[in-house]
């Protein structure tokens, strides 16, 4: 299954797939903030190839909450990651959970800061596939070693549709507020999130590419002087209770709890925490009204030593079940973090 956005590499992959004569599926992320030219281009591609692109949309409630609380253009002030997580990463995660493999148009020369080591074939380091757990999704990057000029030579030879924004100076194309044309001599990635650090221009779809953000040997993330990750938070949902240090300590002390609890020990920068975010939120929604509370405790930085000593933290994420009539929590033993596996764990202990 191809992830199709709007760039030259994407339509080149569709053309390659057509030439094989084998069946293929194409999906794209419609963030609701794309250029009019991009939507028109989608229609041209569908008609040219006789296909229907499978569009993935962000959750309307999440978009509404983000816009109401922070406005339409908060990313100019606090970075693009939060908006991209809502509009792109979470919809992509939903799409990939039904697959065993996906194909992208990443090239090594697209982004020297993050894509120089992109392999042609890899186990996806961030997302989970159909079977759930680490290693359940294969990621193909067939044009990883192809130069941008060669992609364009192929497109001109095959006479296929291209996004009209390319002729206006747009090389790397994303959402309208976050993309602008580049000047002659500028790298193509300079047109994306131009107000941010040019070394880490990834929206989250290929988060595993960012190598320099490894923190404490546990995953990806930028750190401040106190060792706390500066990324926006994860697992933000009305059904997931955010536990403070006193809150988790009180939960540990209770031998006769009124309700059982599921709590995840997480760090926002951890790629495995990011990968399970959708499953955990879905778990919380399924358990809403069941008498089982669902919570989260951020256990990196200053809280890490406490979590290791008192909460069985070995690596992120660590999921704990606090039974109704037991003093000590039970640690989830599996790396399969899809919602069905998590539900089976909770159901067996409730």
Automatic annotation (TrEMBL):
Transmembrane segments: none
Domain called Thioredoxin: residue spans: 234-350
Pfam families: PAPS_reduct, Thioredoxin
Cofactor: [4Fe-4S] cluster
MF term (GO), any: phosphoadenylyl-sulfate reductase (thioredoxin) activity
SUPFAM superfamilies assigned to the protein according to its UniProt record, in alphabetical order: Adenine nucleotide alpha hydrolases-like, Thioredoxin-like
Record CDD domains: PAPS_reductase, PDI_a_APS_reductase
Keywords: Iron, Iron-sulfur, Metal-binding, Oxidoreductase
Top-rank taxon, per record: Eukaryota
GO biological process, one term: sulfate assimilation, phosphoadenylyl sulfate reduction by phosphoadenylyl-sulfate reductase (thioredoxin)
HAMAP family: CysH
NCBIfam families: APS_reduc, PRK02090.1
Name of the protein in its database record: 5 -adenylylsulfate reductase 3, chloroplastic-like
Species in which this protein is naturally found: Olea europaea subsp. europaea
